Amino acid sequence: MSIDKKYFEDFLGYGLSGNVHGKRSKIDELRLKSFTLKDPKVAFPDDDYISVLRKIEGRNGSLGGEVLKRFNLVFNYQKAKITLEKNRYFNDEFSYNKCGIELENDGIRLITEIERASQDIDVENKTVNVRAIYVSKNILVAKNTYIITQVTPGSPAERVGLKKGDQLIKINGSEASNFSLKQLMGRFFEEEGTKLKLEVERIGIRIPVILTLESPIK
């Protein structure tokens, strides 16, 4: 297995003992029987996080979701066998988080919103649409909130000043609460050079930033 000499330090995920950090890189190819995946990304957790796993005889790493999502898996428990069938994601390019932040759903909050409506009126038997919007009532709406939990060193997010603990309020002008966590994180994996306009809240202060997505490995 040939390891690319280029790598970067990153948050790798969550383990039983907490956050897992380490290095990310890529290899030329990964072969699983008759299947060959080109330029897959790989991760190397710091020794502190895998010292126990090293004691498991015969273990030689783990296959992550970026690999497994490219297959339909069939489990035969009686024969202790797993069959892989490639699916429509098989030829997708392996991608990285090009923004450099990890988000977490921080729960539901009740937010006061103004319910607005327009009304048609009849003037001399002619229907006229009233352009003015009037306020009918204030309502409480349950909204998702998203917090930045990790900022990758040297990433576009760090360079524009985003910090762990910032609450994401808007993305490209739209309320972040209108999106799922998967949808928001997906924006960070878009094409290199894509600009994102973010607005975060820190200790009650709204901070707008504009960053450009950049691959951590060329």
Automatic annotation (TrEMBL):
InterPro entries membership: PDZ, PDZ_sf
Please give the Pfam families that the UniProt record associates with this protein. PDZ (PF00595)
Report domain PDZ positions: 147-185
Cite the SUPFAM superfamilies for this sequence: PDZ domain-like
Instruction: Name the chain's protein.
Output: PDZ domain-containing protein
